[in-house]
Structure formats: structure tokens, C-alpha cells
Amino acid sequence: MANERESLAVYRRVFTNDNPAVARVLNRIGFWLTLAGQYEEADRDTRDALDMRRRLVGERHPDVASSLIGLATLEVAQGKFPDALESARSAADIYTASLSASHWRTAAAQSAGGAALTGLGRYQEAEPLLTHSYAVLSKDSGAPPSFRTLAEQYTETLHRRERLANRSRAPSSANVAAVAAH
């Protein structure tokens, strides 16, 4: 992280206005801070990168989608599931249009969307997104390992929550015995 901060400082001295290199490093720092659990700082850097990219390239550019995935990942980690779902869906839409529906970047966005749906308790919607995105991220050697790891963690969280939900819906043995006695 220290090297990233040094790079950012150099870029900011060289480029006094918005610049793609500054936005790229800010986005990367925000993502790593999210994974490290430093959400306040991650939020600032991720949003700065997203805002800069929007000013530089507009709303529908893959660079904006990259920042939206970082934002969705942060929002999932913070439990801001409706916001995360919106960010993830926007990123997936941009990547589907600019790259393809089967590209690993689209899968990374879908994975964050699946995590948001899990957080919202919408397990049936989350399952196919997480299953598909994990399969794509696992097979594509160009996908960064961090996205594969996140997809795996999101899928485990879904399965754990489904099991807990099923247990809470299952009647207790005392209730079953009481109903059977009548």
C-alpha cells in the first residue's frame, strides 16, 4: 500500500488536474483499503476515483465500471446492500455493453451484485449470479485472484445464510409433537 501511496503522490505532483493515472491508483488504493477493512478511507478514495473517471470519460466507460465495482465491494462490506446492488448492476451493464456478458470483469460486477442480493435476503436471485460469476472468475486466468476470493466468500455467505434461514423455518421437534398429538 505504501508504494501505491507514493505513486499517487508522484502522479498528483505531475498531473495537477484530473488524470486517468491518478484515478486508476486511487481506485486501486480504495479497493485494497476495502479488503483491509479501512472503510472510511476506502470510501473517500473510491468515490474520488469514480468522480474523476466520470469527469474524464463519461458515465458508460469501462473505467467507470471498474470504480463502480470497487464501490459495490465497499458497500457490501459496509452492509449498504441496496446501494451495492445499484453500483454492481451499473458496472455489469457497462461491462456487458463494452466487453461482453461473459468477461471476467462483468462476472466481478455480478458477484458483487449477488453479494448485495444475499445481504437483502434475496437468496434465489443471488444464487445464479454467484454461481455463474464464480465459474467465470475461476476459469479466466486474467481475472485477479482477489475477485475469485471475493466471489468464493460471497458464495459461502449465501450458503450459510440459506442454511440459517432454513433452520429458522423448520418446525421444532416440540411443535411437531404437539401438532401430531392433536
Overview features:
82% helix; 182 residues; 9 helices; mainly alpha; Serine Threonine Protein Phosphatase 5, Tetratricopeptide repeat; single chain
Order of helices and strands: HHHHHHHHH
CATH H-level superfamily: Tetratricopeptide repeat domain
Low-confidence segments, given as residue ranges, are 176-181
Strands, total number: 0
For the record, give the distance between the C-alpha atoms at the N and C termini, rounded to a whole number. 66 Å
- The percent range for strand residues is under 5%
> What global shape is seen?
globular
Indicate the radius of gyration in whole angstroms: 20 Å
Give a quick account of the main beta sheet: strands, pairing sense, barrel closure.
Answer: none
Multimerization status: single chain
Describe the structure.
The chain is mainly alpha-helical and 182 residues long. The chain is 82% helix and 0% strand. The chain has helices spanning 2-14, 20-35, 39-57, 62-77, 81-98, 104-119, 123-139, 145-169, 173-181. It starts with a helix and ends with a helix. It has nine helices and no strands. Mean pLDDT is 92; it is low at 176-181. It is globular and about 65 Å long. It has a single domain, classed as Serine Threonine Protein Phosphatase 5, Tetratricopeptide repeat. The longest helix has 25 residues, at 145-169. Helix 6 runs parallel beside helix 8 (145-169).
Can you describe this structure in just a few lines?
Helices cover 82% and strands 0% of the residues. By secondary structure, the protein is mainly α.
